[in-house]
Design brief:
This protein has 198 residues and is α/β, with parallel strands linked by helices. 43% of the residues lie in helices and 11% in strands.
Length: 198
């Protein structure tokens, strides 16, 4: 359902059709959001780049399934640690580096993922002044949360996106969050459509 809301947000904000777009997921490329984007982009004909460290290998089965669908829709699925892969992106997307219950992994994740943080420099590397920043939320983008402040005191910057980007005109995260409601309502209607008494 998150990807449906995200695709809806792209259609609202981009001046081109989905099959002309490129989405770059930055950071932990083997998490659930990266894989969901991979499948969603493959299905909709959207080019997708998983931009993250070489140490994080994308699940081979997930990649094979996404590529099989992409072959039918014309989408390109790419895995890269090269910043050049963000060139021409229409969307930069990221997610928190450590989910609940993974706090013990934070020191390792910060070291590994900091080069893939969404920053103003990364936005500029797209070469697209209209590039969107998206995030499934909640996000660590400043130090106003207790957890972020505590880790910063220990010397670990756990922000996956800088506050400058999160609050910039590129950011459509709150429109995206609102679209969760609309897209989920559509899913509910679609699942009830075959009910004869509805």
């Amino acid at each position: 359902t998150q990807i449906l809301a995200d695709l809806m947000t792209m259609e609202e904000h981009l001046q081109k059709t989905l099959n002309e777009c490129k989405v770059v997921f930055c950071g932990d490329i083997r998490n659930n959001m990266s894989y969901a984007w991979m499948y969603g982009c493959a299905k909709m004909g959207v080019d997708f780049v998983a931009f993250g460290p070489d140490e994080l290998e994308v699940d081979a089965e997930v990649l094979a399934r996404a590529n099989a669908v992409a072959a039918e829709t014309g989408a390109q699925i790419t895995v890269s640690s090269d910043i050049g892969a963000v060139k021409g992106a229409d969307v930069l997307y990221t997610d928190v580096w450590a989910s609940m219950g993974e706090e013990d992994q934070i020191p390792e994740k910060v070291k590994m993922l900091t080069p893939f943080k969404v920053t103003e420099e990364l936005v500029e590397a797209t070469g697209n002044p209209e590039v969107l920043f998206m995030h499934c939320l909640p996000a660590f983008h400043d130090f106003n949360t207790q957890m972020a402040a505590e880790w910063m005191e220990k010397g670990y910057d756990i922000r996956e996106v800088t506050d400058e980007v999160f609050r910039s005109p590129h950011s459509v995260v709150f429109d995206e969050a609102e679209n969760r409601m609309h897209s989920i309502k559509a899913v509910v209607v679609a699942t009830m459509a075959d009910e004869p008494d509805r």
